[in-house]
Write a structure and sequence with these properties.
Ubiquitin-like (UB roll); Rossmann fold; single chain; 22% strand; alpha/beta; 306 residues
Amino acid sequence: MSQRKSRRTAAPKRRATVKRKPAKKAQRQPMSAQLATVLPVQEDTIRRSINWTMIAVLGLAVLAGAMMLRLPHMAAWQIGEGIGKLGFTVERVEINGIDQMERLPVYAVALDQPSMAMPNVDIAAIRQRVEALSWVQEARVSRRLPDTLVVAITERTPVAIWQHEQQLYLVDTEGEVLEEVALDAMPDLPLIIGPQANRQVANFEALMDRAPALRPMLSGATWVGNRRWDLRFQSGETLALPEGEEDAGRALLNFARMDSQNGLLGEGFRRFDMRVPDRFVVRVARDEERPAAPVESGEASEAETG
């Protein structure tokens, strides 16, 4: 009985449990290995390419930051200053090509620099400022080591005197105003009068080239109504020309031919009017009882001859 009871009451044996190891997570392959499965290139080559690309991007970022901070410019400036201390400093300015303009403004521009060290002198800025001077048509600036700046200038050539608002100015063939002229120091140049007459200098020169024999006899010209010329001669006569370059040139050539044949100038006439084609109107000196029209008044000038 006791044995049976012991068998019944004995605890059943437990089955041994086997502990399962957790499954290992799949390791992620590097990008180079992934690309190697797609591209026909070895993994080492791809890895090196990626590394170099990252280095290049980092270098560009550093360079961009340096450029924003102007570090290369600052470094170059300091190097230029060091070269200047070795004796490469501006000591002389040589100016070539000047005939009529003053030299002092050119010296002032060339020497007005933030640094006199030759590498740091801004050649382009000097040229731009020199060409802004009224007499200068073109300028070239260069360095002559160790200590000289050379400024070569092409001057504008004055071809006429422009009377405007009771002032006299020298102008070139492009109509650029060069400088003011005193009445008692006027050069031997034709006098042109009228608003915007300075912009017609090239037109005026071409017109007078049609009849060069009349040029020495001319004392001045008025640009009338921004459309045509009145020529005044030293003998006192005025010639009214028509509008248009061709018509005016043809009329002037005919007048020069008539003057050479019949001696019109200096014969007591006051005004010749050739504004209307195929008409030659002459006003004689005895008609001067009426008040003379102002020189710059185009409408009054034209009204004289009806």
